[in-house]
Amino acid sequence: MPKLNFPRTETITFLLITLLGVANGQVTVFYIVYLFWCQELVRTLVDFIVAARQKEGIAQKWLFLKVSFGSFFILWIYFVFIVLLFGFMLNWKSRDLLVDNISVLTFRNWYFNINMLLFLAEYIYFRFKSGNTGVELHLFNRRHIVLHISIILGAVVQLAVVPRLDIDNRQASALVILPFVLLKVLLDKPRQ
Length: 192
Hints:
Blueprint: H1 6-23, H2 29-54, H3 58-88, H4 95-105, H5 110-129, H6 142-161, H7 170-187
């Protein structure tokens, strides 16, 4: 059976849809950081369901539940921080950005929705085809690092770069999104 390469497929679809969204002025810093968060939530939920079916014994299930709770708790903290800071506080003065962020948050941005639906389908397919092997939940993993760096980088971009650029300009929007795209590509590349 050929080796499945989920990270490469996911990265290609992420890049295509995101770049189309940037070209159409539909991608903001909130969009990117929230997309990273939603993708990690999907991964964690799918892995939780798969791993919960595999665990046997009370001690093993108890440890699994503790780690799972910790992972979901970290995601909850990230969610609150991302929505409050990037969705509202940093864009409070720009009505257009607030409307764009709310449309992403309420799943009314088609680029975001397509990105998430394809990610969900790809990840479930990957889990199914890989025989659900190697499923483990960790309290803090590599993708949490992507979220953490994205939050820090996003705050710097929003506070230092965006005020100096004409954000309605498509080139400026692409420039602001570029560090996040590079971060995703570099940190989500397949491990050899």
